[in-house]
Amino acid sequence: MASASDVSSSNYEYDFYITSCKDNTEWIETTCNYLEDNNLKGCFEERDKIGGVSKAELAQDFIKNSHKIIIGFDKPDLRENFKSLDTLEDIFGKNDTSDSYRLIPVKMHQDSLVPEIHRQSHVLEAWKENFLKQLLKSVKFKGTLGSYNSRSGSGHNSGGRRRGAVQNNGTMTEKQVGLLRKYMDNFARDLPYQKILDHMSKVFSLEDESEIKKESLTDFQKRRKLIDILLTKDTHAYDKFVNILEKISLHLAKPLKEGISSRKDITSAMKNMKLQ
User: Fold this and answer.
1) What is the edge-to-edge ordering of all strands in the sheet holding 124-125?
2) Closest by Cα among 173, 233, 176, 169 to 203
3) Is 40 in a helix, a strand, or coil?
4) How far is CA 211 from CA 97, 166, 200, 204, 235, in A?
5) Which carries the bigger pLDDT value, residue 56 or residue 262?
């Protein structure tokens, strides 16, 4: 196995688990070697198998303990496309992969068929010249982009907090970050930022509010600044933001609410994907 990674979350043993929907051992090995040569720690069944453990059990264990799951899709016929990955349905249902940002779908060929459930994310194309570099970036991506990480050591939440304000206990998921960034233009045009600040006094500190309401900023810039600061908060802050938007600006809340699929929805989609 690879040496310890410099990017692994403390919650996971591996940076990535790689598999494919047919027997593509050569592609898996080549791809895995490239990623591990770039200081990532990966796993796949053929190399890291354990005697006496079934393929399904091993796959479940790897997925549970890997930050990202790379799935290569080969033939356009779904009946051929899942190997023993009939277990996908069980795996996704049992191991909290409803946070589908962890899945990295890869088309092996131009006519490969990627199930609908994976099309909400960008699909990488294995035949492209820059595929391996794109994959490396995707595996390393954690959802806290540089401009947002830069705040973490600035003491931004340490002083000047409102009385009773909730301490930031982590970061948002990549999915939540992606949705906020995706709809940034909508927020910059329409977000009622003062109402948000009034309702989220336990999330935004006085320092946050002062930065958002700088006299030198236009209203457009103030709205963007609020989202920039929100992106440094945790999942609780995201949920609070969406709940408040539902009450005061439903058209802004709707895409954020719909963008986060529940585990039930994903498991259901997996069932519908299987062909009889």
Assistant:
1) 42-43, 14-20, 66-73, 103-107, 124-125
2) 233
3) coil
4) 36, 19, 15, 10, 22
5) 56
